[in-house]
Amino acid sequence: MIPPETHFRKLILVCTNEREGGEICCAMRGSADIHKKLKAAVKERAADIRVSKTGCLDNCATGVSVVIMPDDIWLGDVKETDIPEIIELIFK
Questions:
Q1: Has residue 76 got a pLDDT over 80?
Q2: 64-84 core/surface letters (b: 16 or more CB in 10 A; e: else)
Q3: Structural domains in the chain?
Q4: In this predicted structure, what is the pLDDT of residue 4?
Q5: How much is the average pLDDT of 69-91?
Q6: How far apart are CA 59 and CA 63, in angstroms?
Q7: DSSP state letter for 23
Q8: How far apart are alpha carbons 15 and 54 in whole angstroms?
Q9: Taken in order 76, 82, 87, 89, is the CA torsion positive or negative?
Q10: Which long-range contacts (CB under 8 A, 24 or more apart) does 19-27 make?
């Protein structure tokens, strides 16, 4: 195993998990759009922060989940209107 060399100082995870059988999940709540808009907003300000889609973060009950690492900030029930506040958390 070789540790990867990376130039990212932060990693933002946006759950885009889809569940089978119609179970409530982040994908049903618009997480793909949130990921796309958050990624664009971050890209405008920094090249060393990665915004990635992720599978289940086991927090579906609270709505769309976003995690800011290495700050260990977990956010639930995220909506597109929260993106400016998330940007402030990322860059504080």
A1: yes
A2: bbbbbeeeeeebbebeeebbe
A3: 10-91 (3.40.30.10)
A4: 78
A5: 96
A6: 7
A7: -
A8: 5
A9: negative
A10: 19/56, 19/60, 23/60, 24/60, 24/61, 25/56, 25/60, 26/56, 26/57, 26/60, 26/63, 26/64, 26/65
